[in-house]
Every structure is written in structure tokens, then in C-alpha cells.
Amino acid sequence: MGQKDSVKRTFQAVYIEVLGIGGYGSINYERAIFNESKKMITIRGGISAYQLKDYRLKFNPDLQFPLTINGNYGDKHKIEAGLGQVISTMVEARPSDNLPKRLLNFHSVLLVGYFYQKNSKGFVFRFHYSPIFEYNRYFRHWAGMSFGYSF
Fold first, then answer.
1. pTM for the full model?
2. First-to-last C-alpha distance (Å) of the chain
3. CA atoms lying within 13 Å on the CB side of residue 144
């Protein structure tokens, strides 16, 4: 009967991404908002720290928050495409008094790649090409890979 294909399956995952849209590395959480048959749509949020100390050598990290919506198609071997934003906060010195000033920036991202998930729970792997439009002005080629666990 066609009931098995129409049953929604939950998908949640935590993973570490090397390179990728979070910079040199990030910790991420992803959750399916649609998951039927071979099609899945997920939302993802993460965090990474670029530098932990500011120009005064005090703890004041530059942070990045990758946020995306992704579409996947396939069984255990999936193709993936997505888009999103990376929100970054960085500290620099104000020219007038040399005190720290935190800047908020937005960077648009695209991604296309491969996603592997053998079972509904367990190891997940992803490799993707993810160009970044830094400050929504400058194009940068970028790529990343992720290793994690779905539950």
C-alpha cells in the first residue's frame, strides 16, 4: 500500500562542519520541516568563532551564525541545494577613541552538494560547494564538509 511513502519521518542532526559557510569550522543543528519519500527540506542554524580575542587581546570573539534552508533528494545518497545568510559580528577599534566597536554584517550563501545518511538515525556526511557573497558585494568560492549524527 502507499502508506509508507506518505508517512512523515523526523530528521534532526548535529554536526561539525569543516570550512563551509561558518568559516573555518562551525557547530550546527539541522531539522527537517518536510520529509517524505525521497524529498526533504531542512533548516539549519550554527555558530562559529573566527577570533576569540580582539585587537586589545581581550576575550571578545568574532562570531558567525550560518542559517540556511536546504532541499535534499535521494535515499541514502542525496543531492542537496540550499541558500541562506551568514550573520557575523566582529570587533574593531573606533577611529575616534580606539574603543571597541562591534559590527554586524550579512553574507548571502548558496550551496550545492552531496549528503549521505544511511539510516534514519546515525552517521551523516555532507560535502558541498558553497560560494559566499561577502557583505553581499564580494563573491568568494568556498566549500565545506560536515560530519555528524542524526536522531
1. 0.87
2. 27
3. 23
pLDDT in tens, 42-80: 999 999 998 999 999 999 999 999 999 999 999 999 999
Q: What are phi and psi of 98, to 5 degrees?
A: 65, 15
Q: What's the chain's Rg over C-alpha atoms? A: 18
* Alpha-carbon torsion, ordered 132, 133, 138, 139, to 10 deg: 50
Q: How many CB atoms lie within 10 A of CB 120?
A: 11
Asked if residues 48 and 27 have their Cβ atoms less than 8 Å apart, the reply is yes
DSSP characters for 110-130?
Answer: EEEEEEEESSSSEEEEEEEE-
